[in-house]
Amino acid sequence: MPIFYVQYQAIPKPESDDFNKCGGAYVNCWVSAGSETQANEIARKSIEEIQWQVVAVDEECREVYEQYYSENTEGLEHYRQAVLDGEYYVYHQWTNEAQDQDALH
What we know:
Elements: E1 3-12, E2 24-32, H1 36-49, E3 52-64, H2 73-85, E4 87-94
Antiparallel strand pairs: 1-2, 1-3, 2-4
């Protein structure tokens, strides 16, 4: 099954353990799915399951291949982990203080 990549901006919900310490995150998602639509659904559900809310799409969903990461060893590791596990997520969090243009809950 193909691997899709999408990047969201998300914020922790009040019931999240991260709510008081984190203002939000860019969430990089690698998902094994049959289509872009299915990959988006899986990724959003996984984000919501840990009590975070997607507030924006920063990079549209697209199919990716191992060769795509030929010069990006970190991205290649994430891609390969998604191949093994079916999904892989990286949260690039920012603090609970206002940033230039980042969403803040």
